[in-house]
Design goal:
This protein has 325 residues and is α+β, with helices and mostly antiparallel strands. It is 45% helix and 17% strand. The strands form three sheets. Strands 3-2-1-4-7 form a five-stranded antiparallel sheet. The protein has a two-stranded antiparallel sheet with strand order 5-6. A two-stranded antiparallel ribbon has the order 8-9.
Amino acid sequence: MLSTVRDLKAPGAEASGRPFASLLVVKKLTPKTASNGNPFFSADLGDRTGSFGCTIFSDNPAFEALKTGGEGSVVRLEGKIDYYQGRLSPKIARVDVLSEDQLGAPGLLENLVEVAPENAEELWAEFNGFIDAIAHAELRATVRAVFDEIGENFKWSPAAVAMHHAYRHGLLEHTTHMARACKALLPLYREVHADLAMAGILLHDTGKVIEYEGTLATKRSRRGILQGHVVLGYQLARKAGMKVKLAPELLERLEHIILSHQGEPEWGAAVYAATPEAVFVSMIDNLDAKMGMVQRALRQAAEGEEFSERLMGLSSPLLTRKLPE
């Protein structure tokens, strides 16, 4: 019987040495060299229930199989349960890369690809409602022009490679959640221009449809590496704003929201937030990114699990045990 990643992490499954077999996507495959000069792979493998990392050295027969399959391949993996520093890190005994014919088996890809928990079509309809509700005609037209260009890619794109909303439709889910928060919080902050803030939220991460590529495994594209989603999103907004003749000061402030939404330069921001709307959007983005990590960890928690593994974005494990009713 094949084990999911959730099965492997479930309490009671942690006995080192227990054999298992799983169907998994090779999400990331990083070649490295050990101190003795021998090559090895640091691999991230997963399915729709979660993921884990492991190390495969060149003397392991699985090394050549992973090298041949590469990132985005689907593999049947056999190994034994093991842990490293409290995290699942199995010892891999065998890897077989599935052929194109095998990938066509009913339900196989659906079990491998993680998707947003909310219905994508309903999210997209709600998202378009937020665009239509922007009262300022040129701001609304600017936002609409961007999504006329990228809408289909935006609907299925992840919001990240690993940190938050890193699954199909994750970018749509993240942005819609931010728009909901924006609508709820605007009455508390009268200093914030409502239409400008909403336009900034809807556009803030649009560069990610260019930054990321891949169907089963997400990686950064050439333009994503060379420019990054902040600059790519700024370019999309600027082109659309100039096309619809958005007033120069409004366009400048909209661009600033996109350029500063990451908060800190070390997190990818081009500049620090320096307008009421930019501060507002940056804080909502940070809130939903972190709560997205929380929501995902809770969804993927195995029955009876008390804590998740350490979440890099929170710098801590998460308490996943539910409060009593």
